[in-house]
Amino acid sequence: MSSGVAVNQECLDLYQEFKLRKKYKYIVFKLSDDNKEIVVEKTAEDATYDQFLECLPADEPRYAVYDFDYEKVGEGQRNKITFYAWIPDTSKIRQKMLYASSKDALRKNLVGLAIEIQGTDFSEVEYDTILEKANRSN
Description:
Elements: E1 6-7, H1 9-20, E2 26-31, E3 37-44, H2 49-53, E4 62-72, E5 76-86, H3 93-107, E6 115-119, H4 127-136
Parallel strand pairs: 1-3, 5-6
Antiparallel strand pairs: 2-3, 2-4, 4-5
């Protein structure tokens, strides 16, 4: 089911910079105050994974893309564009429903995603969990 939420053009423009020029390490998206569109909340050109996780509120949903760097044993350094649907269990019910039903509006416009993560608490988005998914994917 779709919520009818639109995706702000800035989200798509920054994602292209992120993907093609490697300009950003991550982009965090949120719903606008009137819940009518998905907008960019924050970007960073250089950040560690822990710094990225600090941008995810403990009790509010967000979407994000992160350029996940890792080393694959025997194959060297790799990176995967990872999409996060961060919807913590502690979020308000209305927010959870709105973010869950709006995810595809953003997700289908972000071409080239390698991994998709559904996070409801920080254990589901910790580095080792994502590393395991990255190593399993091609």
